[in-house]
Every structure is written in C-alpha cells, then in structure tokens.
Design goal:
Elements lengths: L3 E2 L9 E2 L1 E3 L2 E3 L6 E5 L6 E6 L3 H18 L4 H30 L3 H18 L2 H4 L4 E6 L2 E9 L2 E5 L7 H12 L3 E5 L6 H13 L6 E3 L4 H9 L3 E7 L2 H13 L3 E5 L4 E5 L5 H13 L9 E7 L6 H9 L19 H16 L3 E4 L18 E4 L6 H4 L6 E7 L2 H10 L2 E2 L1 E5 L3 H10 L4 E4 L15 E2 L2 E2 L6 H7 L1 E9 L18
Parallel strand pairs: 9-10, 9-12, 10-11, 12-13, 14-15, 14-20, 15-18, 17-18, 20-21
Antiparallel strand pairs: 1-2, 3-4, 5-6, 7-8, 8-24, 13-23, 16-17, 19-22
Helix pairs in contact: 1-7, 2-3, 2-6, 3-5, 7-8, 9-10
Length: 509
C-alpha cells in the first residue's frame, strides 16, 4: 500500500501516511498512536496525529484544487465513481480481512460494511439527475427564472471506528461527485481499511488535491471545524463529540451534520411471527458486538410476548464468541480494552440497580485469544427507564428487556427517550403497524425489520438526540448538504426600442 510506510527494521511497525495534494506524506509529528488488533492486542501499525502545518497543507491543497475540479464536467466525475465502485468490488475481500483485523467484526460483517458503502458509491454515479436544477419560462413578460446546483468548496468528514469502510464511503464520494474537494479524517483506531479505499479512489482517477487525508484527535477535528476554507463538515460518532463538532463548526459559519448516539428499541407484539422476531432481535442486538449506532439495545415485549424471553435467551446462547476472522464467529471483540471496561461497568450497574440478569457475558473466555477484548451476549429483563443500562448507550452486546401491557405504553416509553435514530415493530397486523409508524417520534422505522437503515436512494434520517443538522448523509438530502442553490432571473430585450419605462415597484412587468 502506498498509504502505509512499511517497517524498515525488525521491531518496527508500519506507519500510516497522510494524503496531501495527491502525495503520500510521512508525517513530521512526534505524536503517534498504535493500531491494535482487538482480538489479539497485536500492534498492526501506527497512525500519526498530524501537525497543524500538515492539516493546513491538506486544506490548502483542497482549496486550490477546487477551482479546476468544480469545472470538471459532471460526466467525467461520474466516470470516476463508476471506476471506483468497480475497484472496490474487486478488492472487497482483501479490504474486509484488514477491516476485521483492526476493528474486530466478523469477516461477513466486514464485507457487509463495505457493501453498504459501495451502494452509496453506486448512487453517486447517478449524480447527473440528482444535481439537476429547475427552469420556468415566462415568469413575467420576457423574464425567465432558473436554478443551478453548485458545489460549496472544501468539505470535511470525520468518521468513527465502528464502520471504517461504510461511513467514509457515505462521505467523500458524494461530496466529490457534486464538485467539491474533500479532507477526510478517519478514526485513529482503525484507519487501515479506510486508507485502502482512499488508495482505490486515487487509482480511479480522483485528481491531486481533490481528496486529502489527515489523521489525529481533537486538535485536528477543531482545526477542520474552524479553518476559513472549510465550508461543510460531516460527522458520525459519539453524542459528545458530535455536539462539539456541530456547535464549533456552526460558530465558524460552516454547514454541519452530526450523526450521533442512539438507544434503539424494538417493540414485539404478541401476534408477531415468533421465530422471525426472535431471530431478528438476536441478530440486531449482538451483531458487530453491539457496536452500531443502529444496534438494537432495548426490546419491549407487549402483553403475552413476555413469555418469549426464555426462548430468546436460549437462541442467544447459541452465538459463538471468537476472533472475527475465525469461521462461524457471531460476536467478535469490542474495539479496545477501554471499551470493554465501559461495557463491563454498565453490566455491573444493571445488576446493582436490580435488573434481572438472564445471560452474563462478562466471564467469556476465547481459547487462543485470551488477551482479546471479548464480551459475550448479555440479556437483562425487569429493566427500568431510570437505570444506567437503559439511559446510556452501551455500545456493546447487551440487550435490555422491558415488558408492557399495550402498544400505546410502548410508544409513549420510546417517545420519552431523548434519542431518535431507529426503532422496530414486530407484528402481523397492518393497522397496528400504521398506528405505530404514525405516532412514533423516531427518524427511521422498521416494520418487521430490526435495523431500518435505508438504501442510498433514500436518506439516513435519524432524529432528535441522535442527529444535529437538518440534512442527513447520503440520498437526496446529502446532495443538498454538499451543494448550494443559485437562483437566476433573466430578461433579454429583443432590440433597444423594447426597453419600456422606468419601474420603481418590486414587481416584474
């Protein structure tokens, strides 16, 4: 990989480079962070925390490239995206192996991570219709009005550790195909697979300066949010950081979108298809070790559905905890020792606060991977809304179960929660489904679907405490986010004698 400086001597590890103005740059920083395999604690490489000068150089390169890139014909930009999707498809399995090693998720889930991002790249190939303006002839005598959809300039993206392929592919392809230039800051915890995608983007034909990459922590984030040349910031990650990014960017006149934390619920009605519903609950709660902003973390069992809890627990016991690259693994490690400690602390709090622990994942051991950050599937019932395991986003393989008597109780409970990312309902009754989808105050609703992430033709529409900004990533909304609309009103006189008289009113005549 050009993006990685391979170790030159025994005992050294490979280092990740920056991408500035089309060149792979070895950072001059003295602040580096190890990239750790969460299943083994093996050091896979190290990532630099870029200096202020390096971040400024990346932004300046993007600013200079914007002048020519915005003039590049839209079909030429589309062809680059067509090539990029072809390259990603060809390299998907290789990227998935690296993704699994640095992030921990299973190989099949890593391939899904890439596939969902690839769908956005494919959608970017249709920007010719997405970026069309409007035209009306004759809004007044001899006057026409029309709009043009133009790029903003330099945009930036800040991505999380849990989807190192999908989330970057949500961002830079759509921004670039709309005519912007871009500065990407991947997660410092697992940047290797992201950098493989960036290499493919350069191979696909993205010109120098149009896509740049910097690495780092808060200092780099703050510089992106405050730099005069940055016009828009897209963020996916924690609520605390997302709120900071949104506020700081807004204070400096930038357009911003922050997709943040969640506490996603699924309501199970007693008329639901039992086996399909239980399978969905188990998969959505414990897949990716619960490290998804759309993970199912609360199941609300309505009426007689409470009698399904024991069977839910038995299904969950069949899940295999192991390193992500091992065959038949269902639950891999969480990303870091710190993340594991936090999940363990929250499980401890559930026990201390009186929830009923049906399945305890704290003592799971994985032979051959004793140093891994493993937490097994954990299930609580008798959960109250004042408990930490309900109030806080756990980001681990923990499911909290609450039992209620009616659908309305379930709706009221969910609407009282501050988050609004996603929700699911399991039922075979169409009237119940319609009532639920109308009354629930959550941005993304699944009916008999536990993780209702929309396909890229639509937009990701998390709401309330899960989102800041009125436009979501990908879909039609992200084209609006990465562009500005210019309205032009014009009049052409047929000859010099057709000028008419002086008009001092605001109307067109």
């Amino acid at each position: 990989m050009n993006a990685i400086q391979q170790a030159g001597q025994k005992g050294q590890v490979a280092s990740v480079k920056l991408l500035i103005n089309g060149e792979w740059v070895e950072s001059k920083t003295d602040h580096w962070q190890d990239i750790i395999n969460p299943a083994t604690q093996e050091v896979l490489g190290r990532v630099p925390f870029a200096t202020t000068e390096e971040v400024n150089a990346a932004i300046d390169a993007a600013q200079q490239a914007f002048a020519s890139w915005r003039q590049t014909p839209i079909q030429a930009r589309m062809r680059i995206m067509l090539k990029l999707q072809e390259l990603i498809r060809a390299k998907a399995k290789d990227i998935a192996k690296v993704l699994t090693a640095e992030q921990g998720k299973t190989l099949s889930d890593a391939e899904g991570d890439i596939q969902r991002g690839l769908e956005v790249v494919e959608h970017a190939c249709s920007v010719g219709t997405l970026q069309m303006g409007e035209y009306v002839e004759g809004v007044a005598r001899g006057v026409d009005s029309y709009t043009v959809i133009q790029p903003l300039g330099v945009c930036a993206g800040i991505t999380p550790f849990n989807f190192p392929a999908m989330i970057p592919l949500w961002m830079f392809p759509m921004a670039i195909v709309c005519g912007n230039t871009f500065v990407l800051k991947p997660s410092e915890q697992d940047p290797l697979s992201t950098m493989m995608l960036v290499e493919l983007a350069i191979e696909a034909g993205i010109p120098a300066g149009v896509l740049n990459v910097v690495h780092g922590g808060k200092e780099v984030v703050d510089l992106l949010c405050t730099h005069q040349h940055i016009k828009a910031i897209s963020f996916v990650g924690s609520t605390a950081v997302g709120t900071h990014v949104y506020n700081l960017a807004g204070q400096h006149g930038k357009r911003a979108q922050s997709m943040m934390g969640a506490k996603n619920h699924a309501v199970v009605m007693p008329d639901a298809n039992k086996q399909q519903s239980l399978n969905a609950l188990v998969g959505a709660a414990f897949g990716a070790a619960g490290q998804r902003c759309m993970a199912l973390s609360v199941a609300i069992m309505v009426g007689e559905a409470k009698n399904w809890i024991d069977e839910l627990v038995e299904k969950t016991k069949t899940l295999k905890v192991n390193a992500g690259h091992e065959p038949d693994t269902d639950i891999g490690p969480v990303i870091s020792t710190r993340a594991k400690a936090r999940v363990m602390d929250l499980i401890d709090s559930g026990v201390a606060e009186g929830a009923k622990l049906h399945l305890d994942g704290r003592q799971v051991k994985v032979p051959g991977y004793e140093q891994g950050n493993f937490v097994g599937a954990t299930i609580f019932s008798d959960v109250r809304t004042d408990m930490r395991i309900y109030k806080e986003e756990i980001f681990g393989p923990v499911l909290a179960i609450i039992c209620v008597d009616t659908l309305q109780e379930a709706i009221d409970l969910i609407n009282a929660n501050p988050f609004g990312n996603g929700v699911g309902l399991f039922t075979q009754n169409g009237a119940t489904a319609r009532t639920f989808q109308n009354q629930i105050d959550i941005g993304q609703v699944g009916i008999n679907i536990p993780i209702p992430v929309p396909v890229p033709f639509f937009s990701f529409t998390g709401s309330r405490g899960s989102k800041l900004g009125d436009l979501g990533p990908y879909g039609k909304q992200v084209v609006q986010f990465y562009t500005q609309t210019k309205t032009i009103t014009s009049r052409w006189f047929e000859d010099q004698h057709d000028a008419g008289g002086v008009n001092t009113t605001i109307s067109l005549r």
